[in-house]
Amino acid sequence: MRHRSKKLLKFNWMDFQHRNAMERSLLTNFFIHKAIKTTAKRAKFITPMIDKLINVVNTKDEMNAIRQVMASLYTKEASLELFNNVAPKFKGKTSGFTRITPIKYRDGDNAKVVLLELV
């Protein structure tokens, strides 16, 4: 039975460290480049994390926001991009910062490739 489990967002085949590293690298690359090409499952996986990070920057005081953001991102360059360029554009909003646009199906495994970008 499927009680309260989100099968599409979990990546059950990865252990915790692998899932955490994948999440952090996707988030870091997303905030550096402001758009990434990835699979639909991974895009749906990191969309809530993007919303949370932008809300943390906009609502919390600066020191606590820096601590929480650096726990989720790898590089200082990505966090500076988030603080200086990305979060101020979405000051009044609480969600809906990203757009997922389907591109094609990948040749090797027929996975759906999408473009995840800021609105």
How would you portray this structure in words?
By secondary structure, the chain is of the alpha+beta class. It has one domain: Alpha-Beta Complex (50s Ribosomal Protein L17, Chain: A), CATH 3.90.1030. Helices cover 54% and strands 17% of the residues. The chain is built from 5 helices and 3 strands. Strands 1-3-2 form a 3-stranded antiparallel β-sheet. A hairpin with a 6-residue loop joins β2 (98-105) and β3. The longest helix is centred in the middle third of the chain and has 20 residues, at 40-59. It starts with 6 loop residues before the first helix and ends with a strand.
Keywords:
single chain; 119 residues; alpha+beta; 50s Ribosomal Protein L17, Chain: A; 3-stranded antiparallel beta sheet; 5 helices; 3 strands; 54% helix; 17% strand
Brief summary:
Helices cover 54% and strands 17% of the residues. The chain is α+β, with helices and mostly antiparallel strands. A hairpin with a 6-residue loop joins strand 2 and strand 3 (112-118).
